[in-house]
User: What shape does this take?
Amino acid sequence: MISFLLKFILTAVLVYGLSLVLPGVVLGGVGSAAILVIVLGILNAIVKPILKVLGFPITVLTLGLFLIVINVIIVKMADYLMATFDVHGFLNALLFSIALSLVNAVVDLVVD
Assistant: This one.
């Protein structure tokens, strides 16, 4: 339980840091970052498997690179759902998605 809370807090703080560093990504604050982490978790649990099944032929043709596009779609959906989170354009969403994946990998290494 403590590791889950630690991962959640670290991810929220690092997502807020990413919003400060990356151009074209605007986030309301650390509280908005915490809500964003929850929204992204829900979208990853519900929408991402559906997109993976629908995009399976394209994923096979692109040797898995289409999964990055699916992550960008998830980030843009979170942008649409939250008023305090804004990502300007596809490229900024791509950069945020890749940076978020790297941040999650580092947090998983540190906490586990």
The chain has a mean pLDDT of 93. The chain is about 80% helix and 5% strand. Residues 30-54 form the longest helix (25 residues). The longest strand covers residues 25-27.
